[in-house]
Amino acid sequence: MHNIRLTLAYDGTDFHGWQIQRSRPSIQGALTDVIRKITQESITVHGAGRTDAGVHALGQVAHFKTRSELTPEDFKRALNALLPPAIRVLAAEEVGPDFHARWQALSKTYAYRFLRGRVASPFDWRYGLHYPWPLDEAAMAEAAKLFEGEHDFTSFAASSGSEDDDRRRTTVREIFHSEIVANPAGIGILASLLTGNLSDSSALSPLHSPLSPELLFVVRGRSFLRYMVRKIAGTLIDVGKGRLAPADIPRLFEIRDRSKSGATLPPVGLFLVAVEYPDPWRV
To answer: 115 and 221 share a domain?
Structure first.
């Protein structure tokens, strides 16, 4: 039995998220259908994270087990030939039998794009939230740093959809890095963040003007609650508008009331940038 790891990029606009759903297109469903066609086996594809409907990825990781003797490069070529153009396999490799894309992940990095120009490019509007109105970007940057560390993120997450699940789940999460940065290079620079290390990219810069052409909210943590990144991004917008202050963030952690934080922003601007693992896991 071979364990094949895939690194994926996808445009989530026309998909109802990662997870297979009955009668609705999903990333996992498209991958599963094509791999079953290639291998003629009843395989299961496991992803590092369940991105929501409309969320994009530059470095999603998945794996599946197969008896097929096709090489990883064969799988990469076949998948890219048969998958819809909105899903691309960037890399494929054989890994050890114990590798699991979800359970071995050490951290995930997400980025949310704020388009700040007066006019949004027709090549960007599907991949960022256009917000051309004034924002206190320095206050947003100050507030973003306050999400680092271990906190109860009840105020910054949606319900799971089940009262029983909400009672059982833990809402404590640890954020390793949280930052608002100027991104003058546009969407292309996100690919350079695939390492999960912001300092690797010289094109990202500290805030340097009252109105940057584009802002990125970049956050790295081990795991995230449902809609958590999008709700934090909405809270940062409220800070930028002056509706909230950076000093309000600790209070929002304490009161554990999601009605008091910012809105859950649309998925259009959210990218799963990278997933990190402790070891190469190669055979």
So the answer is: yes
